[in-house]
Amino acid sequence: CQEQLDLKDTELQMLVVSLKELTVTKEVIQTLEQLLCDDASQLEEERRQVTHSRDTYQDLVRLMEQHRADRAVQLSILRILNKFLDNYQEDMLPWHESIEPCLSTMTALINDREVVQLFIRFLYRLASLNKDYAVVMCRLGTKDSLVKALDKHSTNLLLVTDLRDLISDCEKYASLYKKMTTSVLAGCIQMVLGQIEEHRRSHQPINIPFFDVFLRNLCQGSSVELKEDKCWEKVEVSSNHHRASKLTDKNPKTYWESNGCTGSHFINIYMHKGVVIRWVGVR
To answer: Tell me, what DSSP letter sits at residue 38?
Structure first.
């Protein structure tokens, strides 16, 4: 009846709003899953609006990171994201943001075959829809995660080789993307430094509209490789390789966490020749 539909619509809206709370309960996420994934539901238009909402999508990705070790929550969020993916439209949602949380959860729950299989299916769907996402997976070390999954579960996983082949085909594009990003950012930095030097010599205003906005976005977009000259060549970690860059990004809110048996955790830092180490810190 109409009253029941109105009640479910109100409940759906309340659940979506509650995703923004800092302490979202498992029950909220699972109830949202039921309302969005129930094919018998008559809230087609309301569900369509939710599954096209950028805010709701990003809330779910954040909760995936927040509840990384909770199997039930991860499965519910993954089913909801699959529902979002059913209504995929290019460039509507930032799907690339979901890839790293998926890999982190898959690594954290690597012993659970069902969870690993569902995440592989989701990543395969994503990579099949758009090769740009396969390039992102390539850059985040997805192949290493797939190798670990195969080591744990042998040949009992479906679509692993298909996903690995998709990612392998995009390795050359990932390399090209990295080189192009480096060149573009280097050009932007050179222009900024030239303007600052000209301002210093002539004491004239910098002639770039919204220069402060441009500079702020440039700083946020620069990668680890383009920051100041590093004193190390590379960093190796025992597990969660795609998060190793979090060790050196100077952001106290990001972190690398090992995932392995007792006594197998390590961080190897390869220094440039001739570097004198005066201080090393881990927080």
So the answer is: -
For 264, other C-beta atoms within 10 Å of its C-beta total 10
Mean pLDDT, all residues of the chain:
84
Distances (CA, A) of 272 to 224, 230, 243: 17, 9, 22
Helical residues (DSSP H) of the chain, grouped into ranges: 2-18, 26-37, 44-50, 54-66, 71-86, 99-108, 113-129, 131-139, 142-153, 160-169, 171-202, 211-221
Tokens standing for residue 268:
């190897």
What single-letter DSSP state applies at residue 61? H
Question: For residue 66, which amino acid is it?
Answer: Q
pLDDT tens for 150-193 read 988 877 789 999 999 999 998 888 888 778 877 877 887 887 88
CA 143 to chain centre: 15
Using DSSP's 3-state secondary structure scheme, residue 260 falls into coil
Task: Judge whether residue 227 has pLDDT over 50.
Answer: no
* Tokens describing residue 251: 């952001």
DSSP 87-111: T--TTTS-GGGGHHHHHHHHHHTTT
Determine the pLDDT at residue 126: 95
Whether residue 97 contacts residue 54, with contact meaning beta carbons closer than 8 Å, is answered with: no
CB of 194 closer than 8 Å to CB of 157: no
Give the DSSP H/E element, type plus range, for residue 40.
Answer: none
Identify the bridge partners of residue 269 per DSSP, sorted by sequence position.
Answer: 235
With beta carbons less than 8 A apart as the criterion, state whether 119 and 129 touch.
Answer: no
| Dist CA 39 CA 222 (whole Å) | 44
Q: Is 79 helix (H, G, I), strand (E, B) or coil?
A: helix
Evaluate whether 275 touches 124 at the Cβ level (below 8 Å): no
Rounded CA separation 121/79 (Å): 11
pLDDT in tens, 83-129: 999 989 988 999 999 999 999 999 889 999 999 999 999 999 999 99
